[in-house]
Every structure is written in structure tokens, then in C-alpha cells.
Automatic annotation (TrEMBL):
HAMAP family: Adenine_deaminase. The record marks 221 as: Important for catalytic activity. Its cofactor is Zn(2+). GO terms for biological process: adenine catabolic process; hypoxanthine salvage; nucleotide metabolic process. Belongs to the metallo-dependent hydrolases superfamily. Adenosine and AMP deaminases family. Adenine deaminase type 2 subfamily. Binds 1 zinc ion per subunit. Substrate binds at residue 279. The active site is at 200 (proton donor). Gene3D superfamilies: Metal-dependent hydrolases (3.20.20.140). Residues 12-332 form the Adenosine deaminase domain. Keywords: Hydrolase, Metal-binding, Nucleotide metabolism, Zinc. This is Adenine deaminase.
Length: 341
């Protein structure tokens, strides 16, 4: 098993489901709080980390939005993103497609320009330093109104050349994708590809809506598709990727135990399954940690691991030439690993 873990860690991979605000480690949260003269309601880093014990998605989101309150200027967003990309480089990530939640920050008076500018500066640095390519996805908060999402899209208009796609996140139940039909139609008119969180806590019907109403090209989470065989068949036939986040699903009690997770079954069923970290600072690990936990709990094979790494690139928004290059890199690292066995 340790050999398979070494293979998974060494393979070039992409991360396609990462909320940059969810990469805020307690150490940086305290550093930024001190910088801005803000008092966090926790004595120290250990006390904050100890609070990361969630019952469901909402109990996590309450802490996640509170934590994001320390992000106030472009340098904060730069420091946050830079720290994530250092972890990404260590995990052999070669490409990242990351979400940011502008509404969490603009409603506190942080200018859109500072949010995007700070994140992008770190992305460009990591591209130069580590060769990590990127896409930036603006995500709408589904617990807020569609009018609020439309206003956010309008506010982002001067920066649309810096935004590669749009997503939908936050509290799922009671906020179906259909609530956002018009804003996503506008996004598509602007040429922005769409992804959406669906079927994490919400029912399979929300995945159908994300596909049919929002015209999502990828589903974030999507694990509840298993409850609807027709939906699973569609995801397989149309090769619509699912960005699965195993440690997140256990932390938020979507699954009581990783051993019960359906990702291996879906992968063997021919779906384009990818492994991602979601909110790594809160859920106990980055991409390699997710691979390691899955190898241990689900007894993933060598073939499974290589397929998951390949899927991370095929499901990405990279162009075909870049995908081909990265898939060849996977083959090279895999061959090297086989020789060493
Ligand atoms: O896992 C998630 N689900 C929904 N919204 C989120 N915002 C950050 N992480 C998540
Ligand atoms: Zn997510």
C-alpha cells in the first residue's frame, strides 16, 4: 500500500474543486487578524482548529464565512493564495481551477479589484515559479437571492477577462439550481462556462437542474447521483465530470465513514471521477491527503489511482495540447514507478 501512496503522491495532477477561502489555515487567520486589529473568538490556533468539528454543511459554512472576515486587502488574498499554491506544488499539482466567493467579501466592503487582483498575482507567481497553470472560477452564494448574484456579475464586468467560469456554492438544501436560471443564462451569454455544486447534501433532482437549466459542464460533488440510476447513466454517457471531495464528505457527514464512499463504484462504472480537497484547511487535508485516505479506506488499485490522475486533466478546462502533455507526464512518472517496483 505504501508503494501505491508513493505513486499517487508523485503523479502530476490537477485540482478542480478548491474554494480559496477554504484554504485559510488557522495560523494565517491569526496573522491577518493581528494585522487588521481584529479579535477572533478563539484563544489561539489550537482552539480554532479544535472548532473544526462539523455536523453538516451549514455548521461548516458558519465558521468558513466567519474566518473569511480576516481577508481585507489584496495582500491578504495574495498571501492566502500563495500559501495554497505552495501546498499544491508539494502535492505535484500541475494545474488548478479555483473558486472564489466574491459576495462574502464585497458585502464587507472589499473591492472586487482587490479580491481578484490579490488572487491572480499569486497565481501568476506560481505559474512562473512552479509551472502550475490555472483557471479562476467566480462562485455565487446560493443562500443569497438571484438579484444579488446578478448584481455581483455586473460588478465583476470590468474583470470578466480575468474570470474563466462561474460556479454555485453555499447552503444547498432549499436553494435549487433553478433559483439561478437567469443569472447563469447571462453568464453563458458572456461566454463563461458553468459548473455547480449539486448532490452534495441536496437531492439528485438538483444535479438534473444543474445540467438542464444551468447547463453545467461539471458537477461539484454530485455524489448523491447514485440514488438515481438514470442520472448515473447520463453522467457516464455524456462523460460529465464529478469533482468529488472525499475528506470533505466525511467531515460534513455526507458519509459516516470514508469506507462507505461511492467514488470507487462510480469510477468503476465509467464516470469521470476526480479527487479534490474542497476546503483543505477545514477538512483535514490537501489533494495528496485525500488520495492517501482513499487508498487506505477504499483499497484503490494502481489502475484506479492513475485513472483518477488522468481524469483530473481530462475534466479540466485546459486545451487539448496541454492535456496531452500532462497525460504524457503521468505516463512517464507511472513508468518510472513501475520500474522501481
Ligand atoms: O463543500 C461546499 N459546499 C457548498 N459550499 C461550499 N463553500 C465552500 N465549500 C463548500
Ligand atoms: Zn465545494
Amino acid at each position: 500500500m505504501s508503494d501505491l501512496i508513493a505513486l499517487a503522491c508523485a503523479l502530476p495532477k490537477a485540482e478542480l474543486h478548491l474554494h480559496i477561502e477554504g484554504s485559510l489555515e488557522p495560523e494565517l487567520a491569526f496573522e491577518l487578524a493581528a494585522k487588521h486589529g481584529v479579535t477572533l473568538p478563539y484563544a489561539d490556533v489550537e482552539a480554532l482548529r479544535a472548532a473544526y468539528d462539523f455536523n453538516d454543511l451549514q455548521s461548516f459554512l458558519d465558521l468558513y464565512y466567519a474566518g473569511a472576515g480576516v481577508l481585507r486587502d489584496a495582500d491578504d488574498f495574495h498571501a492566502l493564495t500563495r500559501a495554497y499554491l505552495q501546498r499544491a506544488a508539494a502535492d505535484h499539482l500541475r494545474h488548478v481551477e479555483i473558486f472564489f466567493d466574491p459576495q462574502t467579501h464585497t458585502e464587507r466592503g472589499v473591492p472586487m479589484e482587490d479580491i481578484i487582483g490579490g488572487i491572480r498575482r499569486a497565481l501568476l507567481e506560481a505559474e512562473a515559479e512552479h509551472g502550475i497553470t490555472f483557471r479562476l472560477i467566480m462562485s455565487f452564494l446560493r443562500h443569497l437571492s438571484e438579484a444579488d448574484a446578478i448584481a455581483t456579475l455586473e460588478a465583476a464586468k470590468p474583470f470578466l477577462h480575468r474570470i474563466d467560469g462561474v460556479g454555485l456554492d453555499s447552503s444547498e438544501n432549499g436553494h435549487p439550481p433553478s433559483k439561478f436560471e437567469r443569472v447563469f443564462a447571462l453568464c453563458r451569454e458572456y461566454g463563461l462556462p458553468v459548473v455547480a455544486h449539486a448532490g452534495e447534501e441536496g437531492p439528485p433532482a438538483y444535479i438534473w437542474e444543474a445540467l438542464d437549466i444551468l447547463q453545467a459542464r461539471r458537477i461539484d460533488h454530485g455524489v448523491r447521483c447514485s440514488e438515481d440510476p438514470k442520472l448515473v447513466e447520463r453522467l457516464r454517457a455524456e462523460q460529465i465530470p464529478l469533482t468529488v471531495c472525499p475528506l470533505s464528505n466525511v467531515k460534513l457527514k455526507v458519509y459516516p465513514d470514508l469506507a462507505e464512499h461511492n467514488l470507487k463504484g462510480l469510477l468503476h462504472g465509467g464516470l469521470v471521477i476526480t479527487i479534490n480537497s474542497d476546503d483543505p484547511a477545514y477538512f483535514g487535508g490537501y489533494v495528496n491527503d485525500n488520495f492517501i485516505a482513499c487508498i487506505k479506506a477504499l483499497d484503490l488499485s494502481e489502475t484506479d489511482i492513475v485513472q483518477l490522475a488522468r481524469n483530473s486533466f481530462t475534466a479540466s478546462w485546459l486545451d487539448d495540447a496541454a492535456k496531452a502533455r500532462l497525460l504524457a507526464e503521468i505516463d512517464a512518472v507511472h513508468a518510472q514507478w513501475q520500474t522501481a517496483q
